[in-house]
Every structure is written in C-alpha cells, then in structure tokens.
Design goal:
heterodimer, A: alpha+beta, Glutamine Phosphoribosylpyrophosphate, subunit 1, domain 1, 5-stranded antiparallel β-sheet, B: alpha+beta, about 35% helix
C-alpha cells in the first residue's frame, strides 16, 4: 500500500500540499513564464496571435520552430512553455477537431475544443506519478461569426480574454495591454499593428520582421492565416 | 430485410414548409394480422428544435429515440448551443452506422429548425443521410407519397402543411392494413415543437 509521503514530497509529485496547493502545477506555470513572449488580441473582426522568434544559435534554422499553428481551418493555437508538451497537445487538438467534424458535420466550436484539451491537462494533475503539461495556450478561433480568444493554463483552467500574453515579457506587455484594451476594441488591422509594437516593448529589443511570428483568424473568411514576411514588414 | 422493416408496419411522412417542418406518423402496431395496439408512438420530440419519426422495429425505434435525445442533450450542454439540424442528423447517422453489422431496424426522418431555416433528413437503417423537402417511409410509403407528390409545394403555410401531412398519412391508412388508428404529428418551427394528435375521420 502507498504510505503517506513525508514532508517535502508534496513539491515533487502532484499531490496537495498542506496549504491546499499543487506545487507541481505552479512550477509548470514557471516553465511557461520562462518561455518566449506570446500575445493574443481579440479584435472586432478577428483575433491576432503574435510570438517572438529567437535565434538561439547561429546554426539554428529558427524558421522551423513554429509557435503559432493551425489546428483546423477556423482555429489556431499559440503556446508558451515546453515545446514538446505543446506539440503533443496540438496533435490531440487537431485530432479532436476532425472527430467533431466527423460526428457532427460542422467545425468544432473553439470553446468545446479548449475544454477537451484542458480536461486532458487536468487529468495529469490527478496522479502523483506523472507531471503536468508545461504549456499554456492562446487559442484564436471563430465561433459561427464571433471571434474568440481564450487562454489555457498547465493545470487545465481556461478563460476568455480581450487580450492576453504569455512568456517572459508578460509583465511589461500586460501593463500596456490593460491600459489600452480594457475598455476599447481595435479592428484586426489596428490590432496587428498594435500587437507588434507591444511585442517589441515586451522583449525589450528591436525585432526584425523575421523574428516576429504572426497569424490571424478573421470573421470574413473564418480562416486561420499565417502572415507572410512581407505582410509583417508592412505593419512595422 | 424489408419484411423485418414492415414487421410492425408504419406510415411516416415529413415535409418542409415555409418556416418549419411537419413530421407525421400513424399509431397502429400490427404483428402480422394481429393488431397489438392502436396507441403506438412513432413520432418523437428529441430536443427543443428537433423531432424524429421512425418506421420499423418498435423496440429499436424507442431505443434509438432515447439514445439520440441523450446525445443531443449532451451536445447542447458541452457546446452551449442547440445543434444545427445537419449536425443532429449526422450524429444519428453515425450512431446507426456504428451498428452496421447488427443494425437498428428502423428508417428514420429527422426534422427541425435552426438558424439556417427548417430542414428534413431521411436515414436508412445503417445511417445513409439525405436531405429532402418531403419524404415518406414505411409500409404505407408509396400510398402516402402519391398525395405529397401531387400536392406539395415549397410555399405551404403552417396550417396547409399540417393538413397535407395528415391527409397523406390518412390515405395510406385507408389501404395499408399495417397502418391506421390515428395520426400523431410534430410541428417544429421557431416557436418550438408542437405535438398534435388527430383521429382518422372516414372519408
């Protein structure tokens, strides 16, 4: 039989600490905080996702690292945290989106998809023997005709946002976003331009167009679209 | 296969009118030439905006209507909305196909209304899905179809649609011994689902 753990084990495995916390989940959040800055902005006619692309070494082909990915025609994910964890969840999300299409002959509502992914994340907070996923997602999608921006956490919590930021630059970016967007909404074009400026301030260095990854979902085409290098240049 | 579908016999009819859908079915349950019941229900409301009518094995009809209703309620809870009729019909199609090698012995009409208007779908026992403006199924299908074929048009008002559906089922009851004993109807429009019953009046 499993004997009660001695003091200190509640930090090493996913069980409750005496003060009601799951330290492993909190540590997962730390992993997210150390990730590259990722921003999402809900606009009147769509959602924009932006991420910092960093060349960690001169030998690295940084264009092969995708932090913003298409899940289905009408939904995109951006992540911060452990890349491999994100990859696995992205594959599952893509699968779930197709299963929904098979069952109901319609695109999956973004919140339904997020709920499923977060159920999975929550599952990994139940067992001592496995660690939680060290990923937080920003989800941009179109629900019928409505643009949706939602954020997920490693523990499986999710919520809708007007704007949200993950990763290293979140403190700086959060302040700017709260100041500008708490009471007003931008159009998609304005949102892209504003988002790029916020991203630059958050990473505290000048970003060349190649170091910015950006994508949108808009209410007109209802499709996820990655911005090309030329398009990003036009917004700088 | 067709014998087992006519095991309990039935006539069911569905038609789309301007603003809604009418589903109608008679109430006779006949085992061969023994009339087991005059109170059989073959038309079911499964959600606030969806109804089904089915012809075939009575037990399968009842089982599938409960399973379908439960799945639709789950959809509504999880997705926080009513399903489109296309999605509902597709869901039923998947449930039927999952039993391809041990099928539910029923042919089913799914009718309802969503943001894109009223829709009607017909499904065979293993889940083929076809959208239509009017369909008849069961042992009295050909008899009832003749009425719809000559009198249906897409611009029917609600009362006309109800009368036409009733007449269509009634005619079949007159000549198909496995059909009769009254007509149950569902009228589904933007206000919801209305359940009606009409006894058969002699012509």
């Amino acid at each position: 039989m499993f004997s009660p753990p001695s003091m200190g084990y509640d930090r090493a495995i996913t069980i409750f600490s005496p003060d009601g916390r799951l330290y492993q989940v909190e540590y997962a959040l730390e992993a997210v905080k150390r990730g590259l800055t990722t921003i999402g902005i809900l606009c009147t006619d769509g959602v924009v996702l932006l991420a910092e692309r960093r060349k960690f070494s001169p030998l690295l082909d940084e264009m092969t690292i995708e932090k913003i990915v298409k899940i289905d025609d009408h939904i995109g994910f951006a992540y911060a945290g452990l890349g491999p964890d994100a990859r696995v969840l992205i594959d599952i999300a893509r699968n779930d989106a197709q299963i929904h299409r098979l069952l109901y002959d319609e695109p999956i509502p973004p919140e339904t998809l997020i709920r499923r992914i977060c159920d999975l994340k929550q599952n990994y907070t139940l067992y001592a023997g496995a660690r939680p996923f060290g990923v937080a997602f920003l989800v941009a999608g179109i629900d019928n005709t409505k643009p949706i921006l939602m954020g997920t956490e490693p523990g499986g919590a999710y919520a809708g946002y007007k704007a949200h930021v993950l990763g290293a630059g979140s403190q700086i970016a959060q302040e700017i976003l709260e100041k500008e967007l708490s009471n007003k909404a931008l159009s998609l074009k304005e949102g892209i331009k504003f988002g790029i400026q916020v991203l630059k301030k958050a990473v505290e260095r000048e970003l060349s167009p190649a170091e910015i990854e950006a994508a949108t979902v808009d209410v007109y085409t209802k499709k996820f679209k990655r911005l090309t290098l030329e398009e990003i240049k036009s917004y700088l | 296969m067709s014998e087992s579908l006519e095991f309990t016999g039935a006539t069911i009819v569905g038609l789309v009118y301007e603003g809604g859908v009418v589903l109608a079915g008679e109430k006779r349950v006949a085992l061969g030439n023994y009339l087991l019941s005059k109170a059989g229900k073959k038309v079911f409301k499964v959600l606030d905006n969806v109804g089904i009518a089915s012809a075939g094995l009575l037990a399968d009809m009842q089982a599938i209507s409960k399973i379908f209703a439960a799945e639709l309620r789950m959809y509504e809870l999880i997705n926080k909305r009513l399903p489109s009729i296309r999605s509902a019909a597709k869901l039923l199609s998947n449930i039927l196909y999952s039993r391809k090698y041990f099928p539910y012995l029923t042919t089913i009409l799914v009718g309802g209304i969503d943001s894109s208007g009223p829709h009607l779908y017909s499904l065979d026992p293993i889940g083929s899905l076809i959208e239509d403006k009017y369909v008849t199924l069961g042992s009295g299908a050909e008899l009832s179809l003749s009425i719809l074929e000559s009198e249906y048009n897409e611009k029917l008002a609600k009362s006309e649609a109800v009368e036409l559906a009733y007449k269509s089922v009634k005619i079949a009851c007159g000549r198909d011994v496995l059909s009769g004993d009254g007509v149950d109807m569902l009228v589904i429009d933007s206000q919801g689902v209305e359940e009606l019953f009409r006894p058969l009046k002699s012509i």
